[in-house]
Each structure stands twice: as C-alpha cells, then as structure tokens.
Design goal:
Order of helices and strands: EEEHEEHEHHHEHEHEEHHEE
Largest sheet: 6 strands, mixed
InterPro entries: AAA+_ATPase, ABC_transporter-like_ATP-bd, ABC_transporter-like_CS, P-loop_NTPase
Strand content: 25-35%
GO molecular function, one term: ATP binding
CATH superfamily of the largest domain: P-loop containing nucleotide triphosphate hydrolases
Distance between the termini: 47 Å
Protein name: Heme ABC transporter ATP-binding protein
Number of helices: 9
Structural class: alpha/beta
Number of strands: 12
CATH topology of the largest domain: Rossmann fold
CATH architecture of the largest domain: 3-Layer(aba) Sandwich
Domain ABC transporter: 8-244
Pfam families: ABC_tran
Shape: globular
CATH class of the largest domain: Alpha Beta
C-alpha cells in the first residue's frame, strides 16, 4: 500500500442531515494504482461517503485530505485537476453531441479533439462522437460520461496533477454484461496507469473482479475492510445484507456470492 501522504482519503467522517446520522466515523483511502470498492446495503452511506470524498458534501466531523492538503482548502479548479467524479446520473439539458459532452471535461486549448477521441475509444463509443447525446440509451450515456472523466483526468495530468483519482458511483448499474466488463477492465487499466480508483458497486461479484480492497459500510459505519478474500465470507456478507449467503470459489481462486435461497433444494426446477 502506498504511503498515506500519496493518497486521497476521508478520515473519521461524521455527517448529519435532517436530524439523521448518515455517516458515523466512516473512512476510506484511495491509493494511486489501486482499486477500492464500497459495498453495503441500500442506505448504508456509500454514495454519501463518496460525495464527501469528492468535496460535494461537507462533513459534520472528520476531514478529507488529498495528499497533505485538506480538500476544504483547495479551490474547485485545483481539485478538478486531481480528481474526476462519475455520479449515478448526470442531466444534460442542452442539445450537445456526444463529443461535446466529453469535451466538457477538458479546458479549452490544444489537443482537445484528440483527447476526446481517445476517451471515446476507451469506452467503445468513438463511432458515436457526432450523434446527439440525448438520443442515446441510458447505458450509452453512462459510458459517455465515463469518457468525460477520462478526458478530465488526462487534462489534469498534463497540468501537473499526476495520474489523479477517479470516483465512480455505481458505474455499471445501467450497463449490460459486456459493458460492465468493459468498465471493470478500464478500472483495472487505469489503476495500472497509476490512477487511484474508488467505485460504489452493488454487484458483489463485480466488486470482487475489480477490487484490490473492499470496504463494507452498514448504517454509516465501516464494518469490514480488506481484500476480496478477507471481506467475502459467508458470515460477513450474510450479516451485512441480512440474508443467508454462501461464498464459493471460482477457478481463478476468486470468491463469488450465491444467495442461499438459490442454492440446494430451493434451486431445483
């Protein structure tokens, strides 16, 4: 694990809103060259913690640090050079083309067209560059928005920000299986290029394929943290999701989840 001073981290985060405690001492570290995945049931605080880390939400307690700097002291422009964010959904009100949406991630200047083309190629949308964004399917829009974050990261690296950090909130939610695997491969490739990646994923089997580290949240607290092998156990996953769970082992020696109700006699047709 790289030294903490080279990481992007949320430390002991507390967040209250509307009389509710949304995060209770939660924390996560995004390290260069690694993929971390947040898991947990609905309402556990995964997206909220990601928003605190990105700077979108200000915590009631704790701190977010990017290297040695507190994120609260960084201006929006500097923060944008260091990290890119893909939220669950992005509304685009204007009649932009696919290429124009992706170009939003890059400051005006030389090399913009090439950067947009490279990013669209990485998400297999290069041939759709001139099409109207609004006519795309939900999954296609998601891939275009992912390309936008890639352009932003590349621009930040060119301006001295290093490989940067990518924060993804349910990036596979609206994608078919082939495109889910495309996103997972891209996450791993970006990590190999030095990017620190954090993703919220609901599909635990996809989380296992992508993650160097899995961080499990429940009721705003981190209840487990470790490698997929360490976190994915019958007892831990069963307790986290309140369902009987059975962990199997794939040929690649990776754990995978089978909900217990679909195992054994209950699965017979």
């Amino acid at each position: 694990m790289p030294h903490l001073l080279n990481s992007y981290r949320a430390e002991n985060i507390t967040l209250r809103a509307g009389g509710r405690l949304l995060l209770d001492g939660a924390g996560v570290t995004v390290a260069p060259g690694r993929v971390s995945v947040l898991i947990g049931p609905n309402g556990a605080g995964k997206s909220t913690l990601l928003k605190v880390l990105s700077g979108e939400l200000r915590p009631s307690g704790g701190q977010v640090r990017l290297g040695e700097e507190a994120v609260s002291r960084l201006g929006p422009a500097l923060l944008a050079r260091r990290r890119a964010v893909l939220p669950q959904s992005v509304e685009v009100a204007f009649p932009f083309t696919v290429a124009e949406v992706v170009a939003i991630g890059r400051p005006a200047g030389r090399g913009g067209h090439e950067a947009v083309s490279r990013a669209l190629g990485r998400v297999e949308m290069a041939e759709r560059a001139g099409e109207a964004y609004q006519r795309l399917s939900g999954g296609e829009k998601q891939r275009v928005q992912l390309a936008r974050t890639l352009v932003q990261l590349e621009a930040g690296a060119e301006r001295g920000g290093g490989p940067g950090y990518l924060l993804l909130d349910e990036p596979t939610a609206s994608l078919d299986l082939a495109q889910q695997m495309l996103v997972l491969r891209l996450m791993r490739t970006l990590a190999a290029e030095g990017v620190g990646v954090l993703a919220v994923l609901h599909d635990l089997n996809l989380a296992v394929l992508a993650a160097d580290e899995i961080v499990a949240l429940e009721a705003g607290r981190v209840v487990a943290r470790g490698t997929p092998h360490e976190v994915m156990t019958d007892a831990r996953i069963g307790a986290l999701y309140k369902v009987p769970a059975r962990i199997g082992w794939a040929p690649e020696a990776l754990p995978f989840l089978l909900p217990h109700g679909l195992v054994g006699d209950g699965a017979k047709r």
